[in-house]
C-alpha cells in the first residue's frame, strides 16, 4: 500500500452533496424544467416503424388540423443540414453534425420521421398519433448470430485503441498447455436508461440560440448542435446545470435537442422536447450485443501461459462503434502470450455508444468467467490464482503501472468478505431449497485525464466562485469541486459556490470515461493555486481571479511513462432456488484502489451504483430485437429489467488507501466506471459455485439454471 | 393519447349507465393500467367514468361466512387487512407479490381483475395483435414469447393474464358481483369471468357492466401458499405462479386446490388435477397433480421452459403447503 494521503482539509471527507437539498426539494431544475423567457411550445417525436427503407408519403393533414398544433416538421420542411456520413470520422465523433429529418431515408426503427409541435404537450402527443407515414421498406439485417459471416475488422476500436493485439505467440502457447479453457460467452444488448430522459428547451434571440439540455459534455453537444444547424458554435449557448444520469448516453447531442432548436427557429417561440422512455431505446445508442470467445492456457501450477479474447459485436452501417471489449484483457494478467481481436457486424439498427465502462464491463463478464472456469479445472482458489498471475508491468505496453493494488484489493476484500469460509466446490452448501455460492472477480479500468480549464474568483468578502463547463450527472461534481477549492484556498466550504454545465464557462472534457473528477478537480486546484499565489503578493482587499488548467493525458509525460489503471475485486454471495432456478444476490463487497478519494461518500456511491449495474447486467438486462421488424420488443422499464431494490439489498464497497501522484497533482483517479467492471462475473461465478451450472449467456436467466440442474 | 372527457360517478348504477351509454366510454379506477395503455395508444376511450370514489371500499364479513370485498378496496389495503391475512393468507401473499408499493396503493380490486395482458405486442400499436385489432394476426406467435401462455392458448392469441390477485381469488372460489349497464345485479364465478382467447371480448362482462365486489366463500380447509416465480426479486410479473391449498393431517392429503398464474389467459385450474388431492400419502402424488394440471401444455419457442418450470413450482409449492406430509 502507498503512503497515506495527508488529509488536512475537506478533500476526501464524506461531505453530503452540496446540491442535495436542492435536489430533494425539487429546486434543482433539470433541462425539461427550465423556464425560457416565454412559455415554450411542446414538441413530440414520431419514430419510424420500419428498420430500413424510405419514407414515401407523409399525411400530416389531420395532425396539422388538430387543436393547438403549430407545426408538423418532416424531412420535407426541416432545415437543410449537412449529410451525416461517413460512418467513421477522424475527429471527435461526438462533435459531428447529427442531422435529424435530413432526408427520406430510414436507417433504423425509431429514427425520427416527424416532429409535431403544439401549444401543450397533450395536444402535441395526440396530434403525433395522427401523422400517417408510408414507407417503402427494404430488406433489413437484424440478428448478430445470423450475420456473423459479414464481420469485418474496424481500423481502430473506441478511444483509438488498436483493433487487434498480440503479445507472444498465443496459438503456440495454447497448443501445448496442459490446462485450457475455450468457451464462448454472449452479452445482450444493454441500454443506458438514465432516470432523466433526453430533453431540451430551445430559445432563439435573433441568431443566438440558448438550449437547456441534458448533456454530459457541454462542448461536444454544443459543437454537434452548431454543426447540425450550420452555424458558428459561438452563437450557441448550451446549459446543463443538473443532469439525471448519463452513463454515456448523453455524451453527444441527440435528436430532441436539434428538433427543439429547428422548431423554435421556425416558430419564433421557445420549444421544449422530451423523449419518451420508449424512444430512448432507439435514439441515444446502446451497448451492442457481443459474442466473445475466450481461450486460456495455464501450467498445472496455475500460471497463465496464454490469454486470447476475440469479440464479434453489432455495429451500424451508418455510424461505426467498436466497443473496446477485449481491451482489459491486454493489461489484467501477466501472461506471456496475449491475443485480442475485435470484429464488427453491421446491422440495420442504431449504432452502439459508450455505456458505463464501455468494453470493460462486457469484456470482464466473459474474461473473469473464463478465469473462474480455469480455476475450477486447476482446483485452485480463484483469489490465489489472480494473485499468482498479477503483474506490476503492463504485459502489452511493457511499462510499469502508475499504481496497481489489485493484490491488496483481493486480499483485503477476501478477508472482509469472509472468503475463507466459502463453499469450495459447486453444490456444497445449501439452506433448504436454496443453493448458496460465492464468487470473485477482478476489476480493472483505465485511468484517463482530459484537457480541462476552470475559472476561480475570490471576492473582497472572500467568497469564492468556481466555474467550468464540467457537468454533475448525479456523481457529485458540485461537491468535490467545492471541497477542492475550499481546501486549496483555505476557506470554509460554505464560502465556495461552484457553477457548472454552461458553455459560457471554461471548457472541460465533461463527464465521461471516469475522467471528469480528476480532470476538473486538477483544473480547479491549479486555478486556486494561481489565485492563492496572487493573493500572497498583496494585502489589498480586492477581487482575485484566475483560470487554471490541466493537460490531457496525450500531452502528459506520466501517461507515456506509466500504464494507468484503477483496480478492484468483487466478492458476491448468491442463493439459487433449486426448484425454480431463481438467482438472488445476497451480498456483495467491492474493494477498490483508485487513487486519492476526493469524497468518501460520493465515491462509495459511485462504486455501489456500478456494482448494482453489474448485478443487473449479469442477471437481468437484455433488449430483445425482433428480427422480423427490427423493433425492440421489451422497450420499457416494465419489461427491460434493471435491478430493483430487492435485488440489491446488501452491497458495500471500500477503498484501499492510495495516492497516485503520477495520475495528477491531486493523486486522484477515476471511479465512476470501476464499480461495474467485473461485478457481474463475480455473480456468474457465484452461480456456478452454488449450482454447478456455468451460464455463458448474459443475462443469466432462471431457464438457463433449471436446464442445468 | 387521444383527448377524452371525464366524469366522476355518483353511485354504481349511474356509473354503469354512463359507460353503457357510450361505446367509447370506460371505467377508470386506480388508472395504473388504463392510463398506461392510453399513453401507448392501445386504449383510446373518448370518455372516462371515474369509479374510484364510489363507496365500494369496504371489506365486510358475509352472514353466511366469508368476505365481501368492495371493488374499490386498494390492493395494499386488502393485502394488509387482518381478516384477509388470517383467513386468506394466500390472497394477501399474492397481492404483496404484485407490482410495487406505489402501484398497490393506487390499484383497485376491480381494476386488478380486469388489467390487460402484458404481451409486448399487445402494448405496441406498431405490431399486429388480434386482441387489440381483431383479424390483424398475432405477432407473439412467431416472435419473442418468453412470457407467453403454455396452456389454453390458440393460434389467435397466446397472451397471459398477468394478475397475481386473480390467481389467489380463483383458488379461493371467488365470485364477482356486478351491476350491468341496465342496472341489474349479477354474480359470476371468477372462473367464468375470462373468455377463451380469440378475437372477441376478453371477459364475459357486458359493456358498462361494473364490478362492485368480490365475494369470497369461507376458506377451504388446509394450508394456503402462494409462490411467484419471476425474473427479479420484485416488480416483475410472474413467469409462473402457483396458488395452492393443501389439507393434510396425520400424514395424509385429504383435499386441496391449485391455481396457476402466468401460464394462460386466465388463472388456470384443472378439476382432474384437484381430484387427485384425495390421494393419501403417495410420494408421487404431487408429480401426478402437476402432470394433470399441465396436461395439454405446449410451448411456443422462447417459453418452452415454462412447462418444466411450472411442474417444478407446483411440486415445491404443494410440498410447502402440505408441510411435512410429502
Ligand atoms: C410496472 C407495473 C408492474 C406491475 N406488476 C404487477 C404484478 O407483478 N402483478 C400484478 O398482479 N399486477 C401488476 N401490475 C398491474 C396492477 O396490479 C394493475 O395495474 C392494477 O391492479 C389495476 O388496477 P386499477 O384500479 O389501477 O385499474 P385501472 O387501470 O383503473 O383499470 C383497469 C381496467 O379495468 C377496468 N375497470 C376498473 N375498475 C372496474 C370496475 N370496478 N368494474 C369494471 N371495470 C373496471 C378499467 O376500465 C380498465 O379497463 C403492475 C402494473 C405496473 C404498471
Automatic annotation (TrEMBL), chain A:
Chain ranges passing through the membrane: none
InterPro entries (UniProt xref): Ald_Oxase/Xan_DH_a/b (IPR000674), Ald_Oxase/Xan_DH_a/b_sf (IPR036856), Ald_Oxase/xanthine_DH-like (IPR016208), AldOxase/xan_DH_MoCoBD1 (IPR008274), AldOxase/xan_DH_MoCoBD2 (IPR046867), AldOxase/xan_DH_Mopterin-bd_sf (IPR037165)
GO molecular function: iron ion binding; oxidoreductase activity
Ranges for domain Aldehyde oxidase/xanthine dehydrogenase a/b hammerhead: 25-139
Pfam family, one: MoCoBD_2
Protein name as annotated: Xanthine dehydrogenase
Organism encoding this protein: Methylopila turkensis
Automatic annotation (TrEMBL), chain B:
Alphabetized Pfam families for the sequence: CO_deh_flav_C, FAD_binding_5
GO terms for MF: FAD binding; oxidoreductase activity
Keywords for the protein's UniProt record, in alphabetical order: FAD, Flavoprotein
Domain spans labelled FAD-binding PCMH-type: 1-221
Keyword Ligase attributed: no
PROSITE patterns (alphabetical): FAD_PCMH
Stored SMART domains: CO_deh_flav_C (SM01092)
Signal peptide: none
Protein name: Molybdopterin dehydrogenase
Natural source organism: Methylopila turkensis
Organism lineage string: Bacteria, Pseudomonadati, Pseudomonadota, Alphaproteobacteria, Hyphomicrobiales
Amino acid at each position: 500500500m502507498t503512503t497515506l494521503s495527508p488529509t488536512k482539509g475537506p478533500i476526501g471527507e464524506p461531505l453530503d452533496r452540496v446540491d442535495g437539498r436542492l435536489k430533494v426539494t425539487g429546486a434543482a431544475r433539470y433541462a425539461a424544467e427550465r423556464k425560457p423567457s416565454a412559455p415554450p411550445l411542446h414538441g413530440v417525436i414520431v419514430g419510424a416503424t420500419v428498420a430500413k427503407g424510405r419514407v414515401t408519403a407523409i399525411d400530416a393533414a389531420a395532425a396539422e388540423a388538430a387543436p393547438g398544433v403549430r407545426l408538423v416538421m418532416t424531412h420535407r420542411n426541416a432545415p437543410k443540414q449537412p449529410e451525416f456520413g461517413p460512418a467513421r470520422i477522424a475527429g471527435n465523433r461526438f462533435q459531428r453534425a447529427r442531422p435529424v429529418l435530413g432526408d427520406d431515408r430510414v436507417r433504423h426503427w425509431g429514427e425520427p420521421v416527424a416532429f409535431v409541435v403544439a401549444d401543450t404537450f397533450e395536444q402535441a402527443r395526440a396530434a403525433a398519433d395522427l401523422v400517417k407515414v408510408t414507407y417503402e421498406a427494404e430488406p433489413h439485417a437484424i440478428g448478430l448470430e445470423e450475420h456473423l459471416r459479414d464481420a469485418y475488422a474496424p481500423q481502430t476500436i473506441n478511444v483509438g485503441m488498436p483493433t487487434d493485439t498480440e503479445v507472444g505467440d498465443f496459438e503456440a502457447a495454447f497448443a501445448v498447455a496442459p490446462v485450457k479453457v475455450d468457451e464462448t460467452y454472449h452479452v445482450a444488448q444493454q441500454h443506458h436508461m438514465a432516470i432523466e430522459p433526453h430533453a431540451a428547451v430551445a430559445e432563439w434571440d435573433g441568431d443566438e440560440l440558448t438550449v437547456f439540455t441534458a448533456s454530459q459534455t457541454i462542448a461536444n453537444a454544443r459543437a454537434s448542435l452548431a454543426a447540425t444547424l450550420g452555424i458558428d458554435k459561438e452563437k450557441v449557448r448550451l446549459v446543463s446545470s443538473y443532469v439525471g444520469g448519463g452513463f454515456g448516453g448523453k455524451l453527444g447531442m441527440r435528436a430532441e435537442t436539434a428538433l427543439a432548436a429547428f422548431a423554435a427557429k421556425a416558430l419564433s417561440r421557445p420549444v421544449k422536447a422530451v423523449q419518451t422512455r420508449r424512444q430512448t431505446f432507439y435514439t441515444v445508442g446502446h451497448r451492442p450485443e457481443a459474442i466473445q470467445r475466450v481461450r486460456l492456457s495455464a501450467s498445472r501450477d496455475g500460471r497463465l501461459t496464454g490469454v486470447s479474447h476475440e469479440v464479434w459485436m453489432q455495429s451500424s452501417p451508418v455510424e461505426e462503434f467498436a466497443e473496446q471489449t477485449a481491451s482489459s484483457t491486454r493489461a489484467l494478467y501477466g501472461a506471456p502470450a496475449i491475443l485480442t481481436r475485435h470484429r464488427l457486424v453491421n446491422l440495420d439498427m442504431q449504432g452502439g455508444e459508450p455505456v458505463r465502462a464501455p468494453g470493460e464491463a462486457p469484456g470482464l463478464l466473459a474474461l473473469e468467467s473464463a478465469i473462474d472456469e480455469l480455476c475450477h479445472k486447476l482446483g485452485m482458489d480463484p483469489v490465489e490464482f489472480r494473485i499468482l498471475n498479477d503483474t506490476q508491468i503492463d504485459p502489452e505496453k511493457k511499462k510499469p503501472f502508475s499504481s496497481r493494488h489489485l493484490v491488496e484489493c483481493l486480499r483485503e476484500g477476501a478477508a472482509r468478505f469472509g472468503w475463507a469460509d466459502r463453499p469450495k466446490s459447486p453444490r456444497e452448501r445449501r439452506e433448504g431449497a436454496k443453493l448458496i455460492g460465492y464468487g470473485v472477480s477482478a476489476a480493472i479500468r483505465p485511468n484517463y485525464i482530459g484537457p480541462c480549464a476552470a475559472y476561480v474568483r475570490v471576492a473582497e468578502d472572500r467568497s469564492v466562485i468556481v466555474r467550468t463547463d464540467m457537468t454533475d450527472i448525479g456523481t457529485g461534481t458540485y461537491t468535490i469541486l467545492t471541497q477542492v477549492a475550499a481546501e486549496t484556498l483555505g476557506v470554509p466550504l460554505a464560502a465556495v459556490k461552484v457553477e457548472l454545465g454552461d458553455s459560457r464557462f471554461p471548457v472541460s472534457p465533461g463527464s465521461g470515461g471516469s475522467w471528469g473528477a480528476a480532470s476538473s478537480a486538477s483544473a480547479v486546484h491549479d486555478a486556486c493555486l494561481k489565485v492563492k499565489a496572487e493573493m500572497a503578493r498583496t494585502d489589498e482587499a480586492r477581487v482575485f481571479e484566475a483560470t487554471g488548467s490541466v493537460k490531457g493525458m496525450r500531452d502528459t509525460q506520466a501517461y507515456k511513462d506509466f500504464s494507468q489503471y484503477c483496480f478492484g475485486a468483487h466478492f458476491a454471495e448468491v442463493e439459487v432456488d433449486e426448484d425454480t432456478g431463481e438467482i438472488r444476490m445476497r451480498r456483495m463487497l467491492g474493494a477498490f484502489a483508485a487513487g486519492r478519494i476526493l469524497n468518501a461518500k460520493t465515491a462509495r456511491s459511485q462504486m455501489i451504483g456500478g456494482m448494482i449495474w453489474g448485478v443487473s447486467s449479469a442477471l437481468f438486462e437484455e433488449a430483445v430485437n425482433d428480427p422480423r421488424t427490427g423493433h425492440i420488443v421489451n422497450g420499457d422499464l416494465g419489461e427491460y429489467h434493471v435491478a430493483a431494490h430487492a435485488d440489491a439489498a446488501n452491497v458495500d464497497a471500500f477503498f484501499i488507501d492510495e495516492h497516485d501522484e503520477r495520475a495528477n497533482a491531486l493523486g486522484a483517479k477515476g471511479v465512476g466506471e470501476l464499480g461495474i467492471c467485473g461485478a457481474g462475473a463475480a455473480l456468474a461465478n457465484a452461480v456456478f459455485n452454488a449450482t454447478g451450472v456455468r451460464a455463458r449467456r448474459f443475462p443469466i436467466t432462471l431457464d438457463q439454471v433449471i436446464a442445468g440442474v | 393519447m387521444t383527448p377524452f372527457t371525464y366524469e366522476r360517478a355518483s353511485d354504481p348504477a349511474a356509473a354503469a349507465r354512463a359507460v353503457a351509454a357510450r361505446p367509447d366510454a370506460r371505467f377508470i379506477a386506480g388508472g395504473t393500467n388504463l392510463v398506461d395503455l392510453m399513453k401507448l395508444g392501445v386504449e383510446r376511450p373518448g370518455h372516462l367514468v371515474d369509479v374510484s370514489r364510489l363507496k365500494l371500499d369496504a371489506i365486510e364479513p358475509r352472514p353466511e361466512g366469508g368476505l365481501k370485498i368492495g371493488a374499490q378496496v386498494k390492493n395494499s389495503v386488502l393485502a394488509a387487512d387482518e381478516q384477509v391475512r388470517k383467513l386468506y393468507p394466500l390472497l394477501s401473499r399474492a397481492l404483496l407479490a404484485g407490482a410495487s408499493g406505489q402501484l398497490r396503493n393506487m390499484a383497485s380490486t376491480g381494476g386488478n381483475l380486469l388489467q390487460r395482458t402484458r404481451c409486448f405486442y399487445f402494448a405496441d400499436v406498431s405490431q399486429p395483435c388480434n386482441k387489440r385489432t381483431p383479424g390483424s394476426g398475432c405477432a407473439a406467435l412467431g416472435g419473442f414469447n418468453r412470457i407467453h401462455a403454455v396452456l389454453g392458448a390458440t393460434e389467435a392469441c397466446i397472451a397471459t393474464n398477468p394478475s397475481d390477485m386473480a390467481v389467489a381469488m380463483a383458488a379461493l372460489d371467488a365470485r364477482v358481483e356486478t351491476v350491468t349497464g341496465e342496472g341489474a345485479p349479477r354474480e359470476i364465478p371468477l372462473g367464468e369471468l375470462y373468455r377463451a382467447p380469440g378475437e372477441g371480448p376478453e371477459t364475459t362482462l357486458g359493456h358498462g357492466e361494473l364490478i362492485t365486489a368480490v365475494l369470497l366463500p369461507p376458506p377451504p380447509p388446509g394450508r394456503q401458499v402462494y409462490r411467484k416465480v419471476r425474473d427479479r426479486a420484485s416488480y416483475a410479473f410472474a413467469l409462473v405462479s402457483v396458488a395452492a391449498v393443501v389439507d393434510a393431517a396425520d400424514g395424509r392429503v385429504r383435499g386441496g386446490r391449485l391455481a396457476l398464474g402466468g401460464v394462460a389467459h386466465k388463472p388456470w385450474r384443472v378439476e382432474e388435477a384437484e381430484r387427485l388431492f384425495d390421494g393419501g400419502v403417495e410420494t408421487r402424488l404431487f408429480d401426478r397433480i402437476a402432470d394433470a394440471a399441465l396436461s395439454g401444455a405446449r410451448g411456443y419457442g422462447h417459453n418452452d421452459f415454462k412447462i418444466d418450470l411450472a411442474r417444478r413450482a407446483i411440486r415445491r409449492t404443494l410440498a410447502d403447503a402440505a408441510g411435512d406430509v410429502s
